Amino acid sequence: MIVQNPLLGPMTSALATPLPRVLRPKRALPADSVRPTRAEVNLANLRHNLRVVQRAAGDAHVWAVLKADGYGHGAKAVARTLERAGAQGICVALLEEGVELREAGIKTPILVMGGYYGRAYGELLRHDLIPVVSDLGQIEAMAEEVRFSGSEAARVHLKVDTGMSRLGALPNDVRKLAEVLRLRPELKLHGLMTHFACADLDDPDTIARQLEIFEVATTELAELGLRPEVRHAANSAALLAHAPSCLDVVRPGIALFGVAPGRVACPELRAVMSVRSELISVREIGAGQGVGYGWTWRAPRVTRVATVPMGYADGLSRGLSNKGHVLVRGRRAPIIGVVSMDMTMIDVTDIPGAELGDEAVLMGTQRGLLGEDTISSAEIAEHLGTIPWEVLTAISRRVPRFYREP
Ligand SMILES: *Cc1c(COP(=O)(O)O)cnc(C)c1O
Asked: Residues near 219 by Cβ (< 8 Å), separated by ≥ 6?
């Protein structure tokens, strides 16, 4: 059963709805879309993947990473589903992403990991968002905001850079920060975290090395009487492949969306998003005729060309020109010519009976008259020389998300 977007949130009166402070572009809603192109998000598979992750994580709590609009799946819908299914927390990258989830009624702890709060520390407090801090400026600004607003002590997570060289306090600076934190009753050091650089290479050595540095930082804090309630480090790859990295909390992103990260195998995971459309035009062209801008593909024989209304502006990369495939009637049809902004042509000569209105699957599984096949985000990523994370987050806001509850 396909349910039309049930995610417009709890009914609130116009008066009760706070004015949004951050302007966010709107994504096309199912009801607004006439074009048949859509992303289907299978919430049952999402819950299944949560159970797979929970099993791998043992006693550790799961804080789902829902940055970038829930990896393109729609953060609000995904957060509601995972919260109900037992995820104990949520991590986002941007303050704006955290605000969006609070305004959607999410109650679970939300950790803002991006490390940039501008002058919006008040927003963190107002929306009960937990900031990740890693320098003195952030600690003082947060403490001052708490003093200024007269609110109770605010939770923060301290990040240590154990090897990623991206965000976090350098190991040598941890003691200095801890000395300051200890003297700030406005702040409660709720968590200590780090992030792995090479977890998806499935190389236990790098993880062990980073964890060692993390342990040293933990000890330094303890010596100053600081004992964070939770310590966390593991992303999807680490939690699936290296159980000792799970600590108190794990931070899975991609695994929840059904993709086994990098070299880590996890066949139980089920893809959550599929991208579907229809053939909106079918024509026969003669041998030698070119297809698309620049005629980069020429028909070697009499060819049936079908047009699918999805292009690079929708997140179907132009890098798939003359490379990728689309499923029709359960069989692969090659993409021919260059992917244009709104449309893509495919060769359906070898798909008997292919006609106007047939379903076209750009990503996902299709069962059809001629068989069954799957185009995974990993396959698309392979064509493009990128990773499934980028393929999923690239599906643009022009593509409406439909939520499926089988
Ligand atoms: C994105 C991110 C994660 C989740 O990573 P996956 O590989 O998608 O599981 C975890 N922690 C941090 C700090 C992140 O930025």
From this structure: none
Q: How far is CA 10 from CA 22, 70, 402, in A?
A: 20, 19, 18
Q: What is the DSSP letter of 20?
A: P
| Ligand 1 centroid distance, CA of 192 (Å) | 15
Q: Is the pLDDT of residue 218 over 50?
A: yes
279 Cα–ligand 1 center, Å: 37
Average pLDDT over residues 127-145: 98
In the predicted structure, residue 3 carries a pLDDT above the cut 50 = no
Dist. CA 235 → ligand 1 center (Å): 5
Tell me the pLDDT band of 33, cut-offs 50, 70 and 90.
confident
- Report the C-alpha gap between 406 and 404 in whole angstroms: 6
Active site residue 107: no
Around 231, how many Cα atoms within 13 Å sit in the side-chain half-sphere? 17
Token pair for 281 = 């035009």
The pLDDT, as a whole number, for residue 5 is 45
Arithmetic mean of pLDDT, 337-341: 98
Atom in ligand 1 nearest the alpha carbon of residue 67: 1
Q: What does the alpha-carbon distance between residue 20 and residue 88 come to, in Å, rounded to a whole number?
A: 26
Distance separating alpha carbons of residues 36 and 331, to the nearest angstrom: 20
Options 67, 117, 159, 312, the catalytic residue: 67
Per-residue model confidence (pLDDT) at position 168: 98
Q: Are the CB atoms for 390 and 28 separated by under 8 Å?
A: no
pTM (two decimals): 0.92
The reply to whether ligand 1 has any atom less than 6 angstroms from the CB of 80 is no
Is residue 26 annotated as a catalytic residue, yes or no?
no
The answer to whether the CB of 127 falls within 8 A of the CB of 106 is: no
Per-chain mean pLDDT for the chain: 93
Distance CA 33, CA 213 (A): 51
